[in-house]
Design brief:
heterodimer; A: alpha+beta; Penicillin-binding protein 2a (Domain 2); Beta-lactamase; five-stranded mixed sheet; five-stranded antiparallel sheet; B: mainly alpha; three-stranded antiparallel sheet; globular
Chain lengths: ~625, ~375
C-alpha cells in the first residue's frame, strides 16, 4: 500500500493530459528494435574484428611509419687508389632531397619541381615508379636548393621534404682513366631482377662499368639508418635506435698514376689506347682509352642529352678500346710468327728468303710494305725491318694450324681474364675455327696474310701487351689484373728452346736500337725492345662503317718492353689512323721513360716527379689533370 | 522526494552509466595527458557529477510535467538556437556554442531532450491509440523536428542535426504507420537524398565520400579516417596500453578525447576492451528499452524509445566512424566523449527514462 501511495503522489504532481492506455501492444515493435540493436552491435564488433584481430600487423606497421621518422645514413663507397696509395676516385659530401611518400601532397609538386629546377613530368613519373617509402628526388643540391629546402621543409609548408647527407662520387676530370674506374649509377630495374643483385634494393647506387662494377661488392658500404620518434607535426620527440653506416672498402689497384698520366697526355687528341703491364706478374700499370668520357656526369642521374651524345658519338667514347677493340695486330704479330717458325723448325736463324717488294703465293701477289724490297733477308733483320715477304714465307711453311697453336700459347684468341667487365674475345683463325664459324674450308692462301698480322686475326691492346710480355718474360704468360695484393696467376707457360726466344728478342731489340722501324722508342741507357705494326682498316670490323666519314688511314701499333734481358714493363700503344707504327712508338717511349725515371728517382730518394712529366710541361701534372682538363702542347 | 523514489531508480541503468562515464574520464585523462587539452578529465568529472544531479532532478520532476510544459521548452531551445546564430562563438568555421558565464553551452544538444518530449506529447495528444498516423500528423511532426534541424544544419552542424531524425523515426514507428505510407516515404527519400547531397557544403560532401575512399586524399579529408583506423588496428587484441599508444599520444589521432575517444580507447585497450565497452553500451540501450516495455503509459514508452533510438544512433554513427564504416559526422560518443553539453544531454535523457521507471506502477 505504501508503494501505491508513493506512486499516487508522484502521479498527482503530473497534469492529466495523457491517455491512460497500455503500452504493451508495442511489444512487437520493441522486439524489432532490440533485434536491430543486436545487429548494430554485431556490425560494430565485426568492424573492430577486421582491424584489430584479422589484420593488426598492417595497422601497427602504419602506426610505426607514422611514429618513426627514419633518415637514411648513406655509406660512402670505398676510394679507388693507385699502387702508391694515391686517390684516383674519391667521394665528396653532398646533399640530397628525399620525399617521404606518406606525406607527399601532389599539389606541392609543381612548386617543388620549379624551385629545384626539376621537370614536373619526370618528377611525378619518378614518384609513381619508385615504390619506396622514401624517394631521393634530387642529388647534389646546390647552395640555393638547400637554402630553399631549409626555408620550406617545416610542417606548415612541405613536410614531405627531408634533406639528407649523401656522397657524390668524384672522378678525375677530363675522363682521366675513366674506362678503368668506370662509373656508378642507380641500379636499373633489369638489374634488380637478376639473381646476383638480390641483396640490392631500388635506388641503390651500383657500379655500372670498369672497376666500379667489377668490385662493386667491395666498394659499396652498408647504409645505416637513424630513427627518431616524431609527432604528427613532425617535431622530434626522442631518439630511437641509430644504425651507423659501414663505409665501403678502399680498392687498391696496381695502376701507377704517373704512368697513367703520361699515357693520357701522350694520347691527348688522338684515338686509341695505351696499356702498360708488368710482364712478371700481370699487374696493369696504366690503361687508357681515347676518346674518353666524364664519369662525373653519371653520378646520380645523367642528363638525357649527355647520354644521347655519348651513345651516338661515332667514335664510341664509352668503349674501352684497351680491352674491347678488336684490331688486326699487323706487324706486331710477327714475333709470334717468328717464334712459331723457329720452334717448329720450319726456319732457323739463318734461313733466308728473297724479298723483291712482294711475292706470289697460290696465284696471288702479296706485297711487302717496302716497294723496293729487302733483298735476301734472314730472321734478325726481317724482324728489325718488318719484312712482310719473309713472314709470308714463314706462315706459308707453317700452315695456319701450327701458327694458331703458338698464337694460342701467347694468348691470341682468348680473353686475358683481366678483372674488368665486358672484355671482348679476339680472334685467332684456324681451320677448325673457320669450319666452326662458316662451315667452310680454310684456303691455304688465307694463311699468308695472317703471317703479317692481317686477315682474320685480331687482338685488343691488352691482349697484345700480354702476348708480347709473355715472350719478353721468356715464355711465361701471367693473367693481367688491376687489383693490388693478389698472387699472380700464371695463365700459360711455353716450353720453348731458350735460344729461339733470344733470337726473337734480339730482333725486337734491333727494331729499336739498330736502326729498325721503331728507333723512335729508343731510350738512352735502357735496352728497349719493341715492334711496330701498321694494320689495315679493311680488316677492322669494329670501326668499319661507324666512322665512315673519317679517312680510312691505317692504325699504328707499337709494343715495347724493357729492359731486354729482364723485362719489368711492357707497353702497347694503339694509335688509330696513325698511319705508321713509328707514330705509336714515341707514345710507348714516353711511358717507358716515365717508368724508368721514376724508378731511378725512387732509388735516389728524390721526388717522384718524373723527367718525362717535366718534359711534357706539367710540373704538377696529376693535380692539374684532376682539377680541370687543359689542352697540352 | 524521499528515499523510496531513490530506491526505485533504475540502478542497473545507473551502474552501467557510471561505469561508462568512468571509462570515459579515464580515457580522456589518458588521451589528453601532456597535450594542449591537459585537464579535460577534471572538467569531465564535473560534467558527470552535475549530470547525475540533473538526471535525478529530471527523474523526480518527471516526463509528464515536462511534457506539459513542452511548448515553452520548445520555444526556449529555438530561442537559444537563434541566439547562437547571433551571439555564438565561432569555432572551426561553425557557430555552435554560446558563452554563459564561464561555460560554453551547445544549445543543439538540448534540443534533443525537448524533441523527445515534444514528439511524445504530440503522439499521445493527437493520435488515438491503436490507430496509425495520417499524412497530416507526419507533416506536423516533420515540421516540429525539421525546424530546429534546419537551424542546426545552418550553424553548420550536420552531425548533431542528424541526431534528431532517430527521435522522429522512433516516435512515428512506435505510433504506427501503414505499409503504404512506409513505402511512399521510402520512395521519396530515395529520390530526395541525392538532391539533398547536392546542397551539402563541399567539406561535408568530402566527409561523406572519404570514409569510403580514404586513400583518395590521405592528407586531406581522408586523414582522420585513416588515422582512426590505424589507431584501432594498432591496438590489436589486447591493446597497447596508455604508454605505447603512439597514434593517440603523438597527435596522429584527431581529437582523441571527444569524437575519436573510442579510437584511442581501442588503441589502448584492444579488441578485448572494445568488446567490454560495447557490451556496456548494449546493456545501457537494452535497459532503456526495458523501461519502455514496463512504462505505465504510451508517453513513457515513446520517451524511452526515443532515448533508446537516439543512443543507438549515436553509438552506431560514432563507433562506425571510428572503424571507418560510417562517414565522419562529428557526433560524440555518449558518456565517454568529453564535453559539457553532450554529457548533460545524455544524463537528462537518462533522467527522463528514470522518471518513466519511477512511475511504472501507477495505475
Amino acid at each position: 500500500m505504501a508503494q501505491d501511495n508513493e506512486s499516487r503522489r508522484l502521479q498527482s504532481s503530473a497534469p492529466q493530459i495523457a491517455y491512460r492506455d497500455d503500452p504493451r501492444d508495442a511489444a512487437g515493435k520493441i522486439a524489432i528494435f532490440q533485434y536491430a540493436t543486436v545487429l548494430v552491435f554485431v556490425f560494430l564488433v565485426s568492424g573492430f574484428w577486421q582491424l584489430q584481430v584479422q589484420d593488426p600487423e598492417r595497422y601497427s606497421e602504419a602506426a610505426e611509419r607514422n611514429r618513426i621518422k627514419s633518415t637514411p645514413l648513406l655509406a660512402p663507397r670505398g676510394k679507388i687508389l693507385d699502387r702508391d696509395g694515391r686517390v684516383i676516385v674519391d667521394n665528396r659530401t653532398s646533399y640530397s632531397l628525399l620525399l617521404n611518400r606518406d606525406q607527399i601532397k601532389w599539389e606541392h609538386l609543381p612548386a617543388i619541381s620549379s624551385a629545384l629546377q626539376l621537370d614536373y613530368g619526370d618528377l611525378t613519373a619518378h614518384i609513381r615508379r619508385d615504390t619506396r617509402p622514401q624517394i631521393i628526388i634530387k642529388d647534389q643540391l646546390s647552395r640555393d636548393d638547400i637554402a630553399w629546402i631549409e626555408a620550406h621543409q617545416d610542417e606548415s609548408a612541405y613536410p614531405e621534404m627531408q634533406l639528407i647527407k649523401s656522397w657524390r662520387r668524384q672522378y678525375p676530370q677530363g675522363g682521366f682513366a675513366a674506362h678503368v674506374t668506370g662509373y656508378v649509377g642507380e641500379i636499373s630495374e633489369t638489374e634488380l631482377d637478376l639473381p646476383q643483385f638480390s641483396d640490392y634494393r631500388q635506388g641503390d647506387i651500383i657500379g655500372k662499368d670498369g672497376l666500379e662494377k667489377q668490385y662493386d661488392k667491395t666498394l659499396r658500404g652498408v647504409d645505416g639508418q637513424q630513427r627518431v620518434q616524431v609527432d604528427n607535426l613532425g617535431h622530434e620527440r626522442q631518439m630511437e635506435t641509430t644504425q651507423d653506416a659501414t663505409n665501403g672498402k678502399d680498392l687498391e689497384t696496381t695502376l701507377d698514376l704517373d704512368l697513367q698520366s703520361v699515357a693520357e697526355l701522350a694520347m691527348d687528341g688522338k684515338h686509341g689506347a695505351v696499356v702498360a703491364l708488368d710482364p712478371r706478374n700481370g699487374e696493369v700499370l696504366a690503361m687508357m682509352s681515347a676518346p674518353s668520357f666524364d664519369p662525373n656526369k653519371f653520378t646520380g642521374r645523367i642528363s638525357r642529352t649527355d647520354w644521347n651524345q655519348l651513345m651516338t658519338d661515332p667514335f664510341k667514347p664509352l668503349l674501352n678500346r684497351a680491352i674491347q677493340a678488336e684490331f688486326a695486330p699487323g706487324s706486331t704479330f710477327k714475333p709470334i710468327v717468328a717464334l712459331a717458325g723457329l720452334e717448329t723448325g720450319v726456319i732457323d736463324e739463318d734461313t733466308e728468303f728473297h724479298c723483291s717488294g712482294g711475292a706470289s703465293f697460290y696465284g696471288n701477289y702479296y706485297r711487302c710494305w717496302k716497294k723496293t724490297g729487302h733483298g735476301n733477308i734472314s730472321l734478325h733483320r726481317a724482324i728489325e725491318q718488318s719484312c712482310d715477304v719473309f713472314f709470308y714465307n714463314v706462315a706459308n711453311k707453317l700452315g695456319i694450324d701450327r701458327l694458331a697453336e703458338y698464337a694460342d700459347i701467347a694468348g691470341i684468341g682468348h680473353k686475358t681474364g683481366i678483372d674488368l667487365p665486358n672484355e671482348r674475345e679476339s680472334t685467332m683463325p684456324s681451320t677448325k675455327w673457320k669450319l666452326h664459324l662458316s662451315r667452310e674450308k680454310w684456303y691455304v692462301g688465307e694463311t699468308i696474310s695472317v703471317g703479317i698480322g692481317q686477315g682474320a686475326v685480331t687482338v685488343s691492346p691488352l691482349e697484345l701487351a700480354a702476348a708480347i710480355g709473355g715472350i719478353a718474360d721468356r715464355g711465361k704468360w701471367y693473367q693481367p689484373h688491376l687489383i693490388a695484393g693478389v698472387t699472380p696467376t700464371l695463365s700459360r707457360t711455353g716450353h720453348f728452346n731458350p735460344e729461339n726466344i733470344e733470337r726473337v728478342v734480339s730482333g725486337m731489340y734491333a727494331v729499336v736500337n739498330e736502326g729498325g722501324t721503331g728507333r723512335m722508342a729508343a731510350l738512352p741507357g735502357i735496352k728497349v725492345c719493341g715492334k711496330t705494326g701498321t694494320s689495315q682498316l679493311a680488316s677492322n670490323k669494329f670501326l668499319k662503317g661507324t666512322a665512315a666519314g673519317r679517312a680510312m688511314k691505317d692504325n699504328a701499333w707499337f709494343v715495347g718492353y724493357a729492359p731486354e734481358e729482364a723485362p719489368e714493363i711492357v707497353v702497347v700503344a694503339l694509335f688509330e689512323n696513325g698511319e705508321h707504327g713509328d707514330r705509336a712508338s714515341w707514345i710507348v717511349r714516353d711511358v717507358l721513360k716515365a717508368y724508368f725515371d721514376k724508378k731511378e728517382r725512387k732509388a735516389k730518394g728524390l721526388e717522384l716527379q718524373t723527367e718525362i712529366q717535366q718534359h711534357l710541361g706539367a710540373t704538377n701534372l696529376l693535380a692539374t689533370h684532376l682539377v680541370e682538363p687543359r689542352p697540352l702542347r | 522526494m524521499g528515499y523510496r523514489a531513490f530506491k526505485e531508480l533504475d540502478w542497473p541503468l545507473i551502474i552501467v552509466t557510471l561505469i561508462l562515464s568512468g571509462l570515459g574520464i579515464l580515457q580522456v585523462y589518458s588521451a589528453t595527458n601532456g597535450t594542449k587539452w591537459d585537464g579535460a578529465w577534471e572538467k569531465q568529472i564535473i560534467w558527470v557529477l552535475t549530470g547525475l544531479v540533473m538526471m535525478w532532478a529530471t527523474a523526480v520532476i518527471g516526463y509528464q510535467t515536462l511534457m506539459a510544459q513542452v511548448l515553452y521548452l520548445y520555444a526556449g531551445v529555438i530561442g537559444l538556437l537563434f541566439a547562437t546564430t547571433f551571439i555564438g562563438n565561432k569555432v572551426f568555421g561553425s557557430t555552435r556554442w554560446i558563452k554563459i558565464g564561464g561555460f560554453t553551452l551547445q544549445p543543439s544538444e538540448f534540443v534533443k531532450i525537448v524533441l523527445i518530449l515534444a514528439v511524445a506529447r504530440y503522439l499521445i495528444e493527437f493520435v488515438r491509440p491503436a490507430t496509425t498516423l495520417t499524412w497530416g500528423d507526419l507533416a506536423k511532426l516533420g515540421i516540429m523536428v525539421g525546424f530546429p534541424m534546419a537551424l542546426v544544419m545552418k550553424q553548420p552542424d550536420l552531425g548533431t542535426s542528424l541526431t534528431y531524425i532517430p527521435i522522429l523515426v522512433s516516435g512515428v514507428l512506435m505510433a504506427g504507420l501503414r505499409w503504404k505510407q512506409i513505402f511512399i516515404i521510402t520512395s521519396v527519400l530515395v529520390v530526395a537524398l541525392p538532391i539533398g547531397y547536392h546542397f551539402l557544403k563541399p567539406y561535408q560532401k568530402d566527409r561523406l565520400v572519404s570514409f569510403k575512399y580514404p586513400d583518395r586524399d590521405p592528407k586531406g579529408t581522408g586523414f582522420q579516417v585513416i588515422q582512426s583506423r590505424i589507431a584501432v588496428g594498432n591496438g590489436g587484441m589486447w591493446g597497447r596500453g596508455a604508454k605505447d599508444s603512439s597514434q593517440t599520444h603523438l597527435g596522429f589521432l584527431p581529437v582523441p578525447h571527444t569524437d575519436f575517444i573510442f579510437s584511442s580507447f581501442a588503441e589502448e585497450h584492444g579488441f578485448v576492451g572494445i568488446v567490454i565497452a560495447l557490451v556496456l553500451y548494449f546493456l545501457l540501450i537494452m535497459q532503456v528499452v526495458q523501461n519502455a516495455q514496463t512504462a505505465n503509459d504510451r508517453a513513457g514508452l515513446y520517451v524511452c524509445m526515443g532515448v533508446a533510438a537516439l543512443l543507438l544512433f549515436h553509438v552506431l554513427v560514432n563507433v562506425g566512424m571510428v572503424v571507418g564504416k560510417m562517414p565522419i559526422t562529428g557526433i560524440p560518443l555518449p558518456l565517454m566523449s568529453s564535453g559539457g553539453s553532450n554529457t548533460w544531454s545524455v544524463f537528462l535523457m537518462l533522467g527522463l527514462v528514470n522518471g518513466v521507471r519511477l512511475r511504472r506502477f501507477v495505475n
